[in-house]
Amino acid sequence: MGLRTDFLLTNLFKCVRTYSTFSTQKTSCGYKYNIVQPYPVSHQLTVGKEVEKPEYWESGIPSQGPKEIEIKTKELINTMKDTCQLAKTILSSVREFIKAGITTDDIDIFVHRHCIDHGAYPSPLNYHHFPKSVCTSVNNVVCHGIPDKRPLQEGEMLNVDVTVYRNGVHGDCSAMFFVGEVDPDAIKLSNATKEALEAGIAACKPGQPFSVIGKVIEQVAKEKGYAVVPAFIGHGIGSYFHGPPDVYHFDVSGTSRDEGFIMKPGMTFTIEPILSEGGTDVTILEDDWTAVTDDDSRTAQWEHTVLITKHGVEILT
């Protein structure tokens, strides 16, 4: 679950889009896909007393994370590894569950129950008042899609973003899924985004500037004929859901956004690029969360939580 970049935040909220003028389908290279429209949302699920909860579970307001990039202890790293593996396991289990006819609300219930069964809190739930336990983003929804009662349809693509909180830390990851048979362009977009993520991770090691991540991700995106959606970034993670550093997925080298931070062993953060097959301008809907492409283009996102080690990088999810 990524952060919105501050330099685009104002513009995002200037234009709230309604769907009254939307067409229901769009064609990409001869392939038709559905333009997702808001559907009714069910009640918010609850978490019992037996599950450890983050500080925002009731108020919706998280505490401030560290002011500087945290160097984690060996003990905290081991805890992070355990929690991240749970996030990975839950995300992987979603694959067999997804099929035409189920709703993203069904996915939310599925993920929520798996979290509770493993003694974990679903981190998105009530984080800044997000109403659900997972983010589900279908077709033209860029990210932070709120699970609802709309049935998934054959040929759709969606991102499922799972974050869990257990033993005092968060683990965050997301992946793309297909509903039945999809068109070749959907597969190409997803594969290119995953390749961009893998390139960004491969660039990580002690002594590297964080700006190298966005540089290599943007390079892969351009080589594949796609563009990076700049409005959402990766982030530091630990006992806090979001903290420093800001991890840009496009080249910020030499710009005011390049903070000059250098990777060091013990740092943990997410890398979560979003690529678009069309434009990169996005709008936040009236629910204050759901981001959609202005031109209704489809997007794809893949995400891992990673750890900088003494000799390189380790994928925790």
Automatic annotation (TrEMBL):
SUPFAM superfamilies, per database record: Creatinase/aminopeptidase (SSF55920)
Keywords tagged on the record: Aminopeptidase, Hydrolase, Metal-binding, Protease
GO molecular function: initiator methionyl aminopeptidase activity; metal ion binding; metalloaminopeptidase activity
InterPro entries cross-referenced by the UniProt entry: Creatinase/aminopeptidase-like, Pept_M24, Pept_M24_MAP, Pept_M24A_MAP1
Superkingdom of the organism of origin: Eukaryota
Cofactor info, note text: Binds 2 divalent metal cations per subunit. Has a high-affinity and a low affinity metal-binding site. The true nature of the physiological cofactor is under debate. The enzyme is active with cobalt, zinc, manganese or divalent iron ions. Most likely, methionine aminopeptidases function as mononuclear Fe(2+)-metalloproteases under physiological conditions, and the catalytically relevant metal-binding site has been assigned to the histidine-containing high-affinity site.
Every Peptidase M24 domain range: 79-310
Amino acids binding a divalent metal cation 2: D172, H235, E272, E303
Annotated residues for binding of substrate: H144, H242
Enzymatic class: hydrolase
Catalytic activity: Release of N-terminal amino acids, preferentially methionine, from peptides and arylamides
EC number: 3.4.11.18
Coiled coil: none
Single Gene Ontology BP annotation: proteolysis
Cofactor(s) required, per the database record: Co(2+); Zn(2+); Mn(2+); Fe(2+)
Binding site for a divalent metal cation 1: D161, D172, E303
Family: Belongs to the peptidase M24A family. Methionine aminopeptidase type 1 subfamily.
NCBIfam families attached to this UniProt entry: met_pdase_I (TIGR00500)
Summary of the function given for this chain in its UniProt record: Cotranslationally removes the N-terminal methionine from nascent proteins. The N-terminal methionine is often cleaved when the second residue in the primary sequence is small and uncharged (Met-Ala-, Cys, Gly, Pro, Ser, Thr, or Val).
Protein known as: Methionine aminopeptidase
Originating organism: Nezara viridula
